[in-house]
């Protein structure tokens, strides 16, 4: 029934301005702003995929990864993003990350970071 329906994903932030700056200037994504009644951002991603980011006054960040970017080289991407001020998460326990915040040897090579609203994003090795 829904197999041919166009799809998109969405999540909330507490500040559209901060989100727009982060996604556009730090991550280098194509971002458009919609003047809809509440206003939203639309991220245009590779492959024609779109993400809608909407403001929410009582925003609470998700406790899971909301967006994954497949990259050829996680370490090089982590270095480039860190140079732009992105702080990578460090985990201990079942998920262990190294000094750069990269998990290796327990599934795909992956590193997690947060947007200004606290939503968890990742870069993951292709």
Automatic annotation (TrEMBL):
Gene3D superfamilies: 2,3-Dihydroxybiphenyl 1,2-Dioxygenase, domain 1 (3.10.180.10). Transmembrane segments: none annotated. PROSITE patterns: VOC. It comes from the Bacteria. Residues 5-126 form the VOC domain. This is VOC domain-containing protein. It comes from Chitinophaga jiangningensis.
């Amino acid at each position: 029934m829904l197999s041919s329906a166009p799809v998109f994903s969405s999540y909330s932030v507490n500040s559209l301005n901060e989100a727009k700056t982060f996604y556009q200037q730090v991550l280098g994504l194509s971002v458009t702003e919609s003047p809809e009644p509440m206003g939203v951002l639309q991220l245009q991603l590779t492959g024609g995929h779109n993400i809608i980011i909407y403001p929410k006054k009582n925003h609470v960040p998700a406790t899971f990864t909301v967006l994954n970017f497949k990259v050829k080289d996680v370490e090089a991407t982590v270095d480039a993003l860190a140079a732009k001020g992105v702080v990578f998460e460090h985990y201990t326990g079942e998920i262990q990350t190294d000094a750069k915040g990269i998990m290796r040897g327990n599934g795909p090579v992956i590193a997690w970071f947060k947007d200004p609203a606290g939503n968890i994003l990742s870069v993951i090795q292709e």
